[in-house]
């Protein structure tokens, strides 16, 4: 069964829909979005994913998007168009985005997207999920407010 793109729920459980290639989990407590795409990924799936992020009010959260399992690639033109949409949607403090692409072909597509989408949001491409998560977690630590001074 292929995961549904808008699979987050308030309880943190994933919901499945065989027609959608993106599994998404939103942690409001950690301010983190984890998304994994598999199979044939269409531009409409990515747009739907954006709507899901808006519905969850997760635009400013850190995001890890793993495309390693994608078997059908968007054209460079569609990637550039989607990147422009992402850049135009940036709010005052958009959350950082870590893209995971486990092979050279996907990595090239991810770098194309990152280069075109780069605005004020930090975007990096990784070969492994654990490296992407380490980077995102380091940004969460940097963003944490310092403790109040002791009296």
Structural write-up:
The chain is an alpha/beta fold. Helix 2 runs parallel beside helix 3. It has a 5-stranded mixed beta sheet with strand order 1-2-3-4-5, sandwiched between helices. The radius of gyration is 15 Å and the shape is globular. The model is unreliable at 1-16 and 143-151 (pLDDT under 50). 37% of the residues lie in helices and 23% in strands. It has a single domain, classed as Transcription Regulator spoIIAA (2-Layer Sandwich), CATH 3.30.750.
Q: What can be said about this structure in brief?
A:
By secondary structure, the chain is of the alpha/beta class. It has helices spanning 43-56, 76-88, 104-117, 129-143; strands at residues 22-27, 32-40, 62-72, 97-100, 123-126.
CATH class: Alpha Beta
The CATH homologous superfamily name equals: STAS domain
> Do you know the CATH topology?
Transcription Regulator spoIIAA
Low-confidence spans: pLDDT under 50, at least 5 residues? 1-16, 143-151
- Average of the residue pLDDT scores: 83
Q: Beta-strand percentage?
A: 15-25%
Helix/strand-derived category reads alpha/beta
**What is the overall shape?**
globular
Radius of gyration: 15 Å
Span between N and C termini?
57 Å
Architecture, CATH level 2?
2-Layer Sandwich
Number of helices: 4
Sheet with the most strands, sense and barrel status: 5 strands, mixed
Helix content percent band: 25-40%
Q: How would you spell out the order of helices and strands? A: EEHEHEHEH
**Domain module count:** 1
